[in-house]
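User: structure tokens for this one?
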Amino acid sequence: MNNFIDLRSDTVTKPTLEMRAAMASADVGDDVFLDDPTVNHLQERAAEIFQKQAALFVPSGTMGNQIAINVHTHPGQEVITEGHAHIFEFEMAAMAAISGVLARPIPAPEGILDWERIRTAIRPKIYYRAQTGLIALENTHNMAGGTLYSKEQIDDICAHAHSAGLPVHLDGARIFNASAALNTDVASLTQNCDSVMFCLSKGLAAPVGSMLAGSREFIDRARSVRKMLGGGMRQVGVLAAAGLIALEKMPPRLPEDHQNARLMADLLNEIPSLDVEPEKVRTNILMVGVVRTGLDSERMAAALKEKGVLVSLLDSARIRLVTHNDVSRDQIRQAASIVKRVLGEICR
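Assistant:
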């Protein structure tokens, strides 16, 4: 789809030329035997950057989240999470299928939980009630439009959770976007979380892979669960090499994606039939309501595709646009112009 302006997700990014060169020349070994030097270096750098004791390279963010849930919980427990969190909406009930635990989704404004909402969802310690085993946060929050937890909000939740004897896992698939938007380093944002997963293959533009970080004991157990799930990847340094470039060099350019998302929001806000809230665009995700166009989101997306713009569907009333390394500022302007032209043709 090289001729399209692809705004479906930042997962569509292609590896950079530097990544491709690093992949071609990567020093590799058997990672199941712990002797792939490139994977080991990536894991060490991730742990260092996040100021955690250890880190683990995993094939996907979903696997990273599910490994964390498995390590932190026991069958029969519940996991408190926001009502539209990725681990609840888009991970195929994996926590139930793999770990025997139940999600306890709690709706929150703009996807951001606070301790009071969490506190009221914690099960009382009665033998005939399922017990809360884990609190899972998401930063940035995908389905809420890239909304953010501040460091203070995360620290407050973690402090109360730990006082209650509960671990906190952070689905930080786009934590570097949060870091850029808040002008706070990722280590500070995640320092009190017991574990954090982040993706290399979204805004950081690596072709494959995510990282899971936490204590050394947690990662030792996580490695065993990864193997059980089929995540023994052998000579995977060819992918870890791209991950290293992503980790070291791509975070500083993320503000450009945020600026492009806000530009797109401002341009689309000029179209009367669209529902856009530019002031809420903090990172690289933009939600657009299409009801007043007279089209549902599926018809809207199909019409845009015919003109060379790809978007994703949230529900019948909304589309999602995500900016990333492979979409330029000029293409943002072009895409907005196409949206205006398409609606002009259909709604006249």
